[in-house]
């Protein structure tokens, strides 16, 4: 009686192992590049969202401060001082990557707020006449993006009438 001995393979050749190791290395490299790209995109989205929230907060405070003020002075393009008739003052000043709002009364600081600005942003305050009152303008310009693929930071522009909204126009009844 003859017995058939089945030949069984017990391992892998060096060539097969080399091919598998190379393919696994390529797969890991692709995964690292993809993961890095996802993290970079998430960081950009988070920065834009943070900047948007800061603009909303800045807009609300700037409008209420300018409406409450009776006098405005632009000390430099980066600094604006607002004062009211009852002794309150508000100062907006760019410091590094922050726009700092200081609320004071009689030289005593009551509140300090900081608004995040992306590095390289420019701040421009301007005072323009608007009839018998003044118009306070604030423009925040982002640093120009010179890199391809970079998303552009949103701009901020506000025009607020000093002392509040214009009073309603009274119409005289005609005889």
Automatic annotation (TrEMBL):
Keyword Membrane set for record: yes
Transmembrane segments: 12-39
Record's keyword terms, sorted: Membrane, Transmembrane, Transmembrane helix
Protein name: Type II secretion system protein
């Amino acid at each position: 009686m003859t017995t058939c001995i089945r030949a069984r393979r017990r391992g892998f050749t060096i060539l097969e192992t080399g091919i598998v190791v190379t393919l696994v290395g390529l797969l890991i490299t692709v995964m690292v590049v993809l993961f890095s790209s996802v993290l970079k995109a998430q960081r950009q989205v988070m920065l834009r969202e943070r900047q948007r929230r800061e603009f909303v907060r800045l807009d609300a405070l700037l409008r209420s401060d300018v409406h409450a003020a009776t006098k405005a002075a632009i000390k430099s393009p980066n600094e604006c001082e607002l004062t009211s008739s009852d002794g309150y003052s508000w100062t907006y000043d760019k410091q590094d990557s922050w726009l700092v709002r200081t609320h004071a009364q009689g030289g005593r600081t009551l509140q300090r707020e900081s608004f995040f600005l992306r590095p390289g942003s420019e701040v421009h305050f301007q005072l323009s006449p608007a009839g018998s009152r003044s118009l306070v303008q604030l423009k925040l310009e982002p640093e120009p993006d010179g890199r391809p693929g970079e998303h552009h930071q949103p701009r901020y522009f506000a025009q607020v009438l000093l002392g509040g909204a214009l009073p309603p126009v009274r119409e005289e009844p005609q005889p």
